[in-house]
Write a structure and sequence with these properties.
The complex is a heterodimer of chains A (165) and B (203).
Chain A (H helix, E strand, L loop, with lengths): L2 H20 L2 H18 L9 H14 L15 H6 L3 H14 L3 H11 L4 H8 L3 H32 L1
Helix pairs in contact in A: 1-2, 1-3, 1-5, 1-6, 2-3, 3-6, 3-7, 6-8, 7-8
Chain B lengths: L3 H10 L8 H39 L5 H21 L2 H6 L8 H42 L4 H54 L1
Organism (chain A): Solitalea longa
Pfam family, one (chain A): Sigma70_r2
Keywords (chain A): DNA-binding, Sigma factor, Transcription, Transcription regulation
Chain lengths: 165, 203
C-alpha cells in the first residue's frame, strides 16, 4: 500500500477520531496532519506485526494524548452549550452535539468510543489502547450508556423549553 | 436518539471535506525532516566554533599558567552545556515515538521521560553555574596574581558577586519555572494514565 492510498483511506477516519477527542475542527486537522507526517516518516520501518489500520490509529491516538502538553488551548467542550447551539442549523445540530458529548468524556474514553464508532474490532481497540479486550467491552458499554443518557437529557430539556414557550 | 445505531449513523455523517491534500502532507513531512537536519548541523557548527575559539585563546594569548588554560576549558564546557539546554536537543533525546507503543505504554513512557527531563534540566543548569564559576576563578588567577592585591580582590569580588547573585536569585527562579511547567504536564499525564490503570485493577 502506498502512502497516497493510505492517506486516501485513513485520513477522514483519523480526522473523525481527532474531532471526537478535541471537538475543534482546525485542531483536529492539525493532529490528523501530524499523524500522517509520522506515518510518512515511519512507513519504511513499519514491520507489519499489526494491520496498517491498527498502526495508524495507534499513532493517531497517541498524538491525541500528546495534546495534553498543549495545556493552554482549552477544549471546546468547556464552552457553554448555548454559544455553540446558536450557530448550528437543524441538520448538523445533532452531529455537533455528538462531538460535544464525546469530548466531555474522559480522555481515554473519547478514544475508545471514537474507535468503536469507526467500527474497529474490539480486539484491535484493545491493542491500540493497551488494555484487555474484556476491559474494552465493559468500557464501551458504559460509554454508550453515558452518551445516550446525555442525548436523552438534552432532548428532555429541549421539550421542557418548548413547553414553557 | 434511543439507540446506538443512530449515533453511529450520526458519526459517519460528519463531512470531511477540507483536509489538506496528500501532496501538502508529504511536502510538510519533507520540510520537517530538513528542519531537523538543519538543527543538527546548527548545533555541530556551534560546537565546532567553540572548539576553534578555545584553541585560538590558548594559542594566541599563550597563558603561562596551567590554571588559565584549565579555566578556559571548564568555562567553555559550561557554555556548551548551556547551549544544549537552550536548544531542544534534550527534548529530542527524550522524545517518545508515537508509532511503536500502545496508548497505555505511550503515556507511561511520556511520564517517565518528562520526569527525567525535569531532573536533567535542573541538574545541568546547576552544574553550568558551578563550572562557570570554577572556570572563571581559575582563568582570572594568572592575571590577578600580577595585579596589586586590592585590585585582585576587587576583580574576584565583582566576578563572584555577580555569579553569587545569579546563583541565589536567578537559578532557583528558572529551576522552579522549568519544574512547574513539566510537573503540570506530568500531573495531567498521570491523571489520564490512571483512567486505564484503575479500571484494569477492577477487572
Amino acid at each position: 500500500m502506498t502512502f497516497e492510498e493510505i492517506y486516501q483511506i485513513y485520513s477522514p477516519r483519523v480526522y473523525r477520531l481527532c474531532m471526537g477527542y478535541v471537538n475543534d475542527n482546525s485542531w483536529a486537522k492539525d493532529i490528523t496532519q501530524e499523524t500522517f507526517i509520522t506515518v510518512w516518516q515511519n512507513l519504511g520501518k513499519f514491520r507489519q506485526e499489526s494491520s496498517v489500520g491498527t498502526w495508524i490509529f495507534r499513532i493517531a491516538s497517541n498524538n491525541c494524548l500528546r495534546q495534553i502538553e498543549r495545556a493552554k488551548k482549552s477544549l471546546k467542550s468547556e464552552l457553554p452549550a448555548e454559544i455553540e447551539e446558536k450557530f448550528s442549523d437543524d441538520n448538523s445540530e445533532q452531529e455537533k452535539l455528538l462531538f460535544r458529548f464525546i469530548s466531555e468524556l474522559e480522555e481515554t474514553d473519547r478514544l475508545i468510543i471514537s474507535l468503536e464508532l469507526e467500527e474497529l474490532p474490539q480486539a484491535q481497540i484493545a491493542e491500540i489502547i493497551g488494555i484487555s479486550e474484556g476491559n474494552v467491552r465493559v468500557k464501551i458499554h458504559r460509554i454508550k450508556e453515558k452518551i445516550l443518557k446525555k442525548f436523552q437529557q438534552h432532548e428532555q430539556l429541549q421539550r421542557h423549553k418548548t413547553t414553557l414557550a | 436518539m434511543n439507540n446506538f445505531n443512530d449515533i453511529k449513523q450520526l458519526w459517519h455523517k460528519q463531512e470531511v471535506t477540507d483536509l489538506p491534500n496528500v501532496k501538502a502532507v508529504i511536502e510538510k513531512a519533507i520540510s520537517f525532516r530538513k528542519k531537523a537536519r538543519f538543527n543538527i548541523i546548527k548545533h555541530n557548527v556551534i560546537l565546532t566554533l567553540t572548539a576553534i575559539y578555545i584553541t585560538f585563546v590558548l594559542f594566541y594569548y599563550k597563558p603561562e599558567f596551567f590554571t588559565t588554560k584549565l579555566g578556559v576549558i571548564i568555562a567553555v564546557i559550561a557554555i556548551v552545556m548551556a547551549v544544549i539546554i537552550q536548544s531542544n536537543m534534550l527534548q529530542g533525546l527524550f522524545k517518545s515515538s508515537s508509532s511503536e507503543e500502545n496508548s497505555h505504554q505511550y503515556l507511561q513512557k511520556m511520564i517517565r521521560y518528562k520526569s527525567q527531563m525535569s531532573f536533567f534540566q535542573t541538574k545541568i543548569m546547576k552544574a553550568y553555574f558551578i563550572l562557570l564559576s570554577l572556570g572563571m576563578g581559575l582563568y582570572l588567577y594568572e592575571y590577578a596574581i600580577r595585579m596589586q592585591w586590592p585590585y585582585a580582590v576587587l576583580v574576584y569580588l565583582v566576578t563572584f558577586g555577580w555569579i553569587g547573585l545569579a546563583w541565589v536569585k536567578f537559578v532557583p527562579k528558572q529551576a522552579a519555572s522549568i519544574s512547574k511547567g513539566i510537573n503540570e504536564v506530568i500531573e495531567q499525564l498521570e491523571r489520564v494514565n490512571n483512567q486505564l490503570v484503575e479500571k484494569d485493577a477492577v477487572q
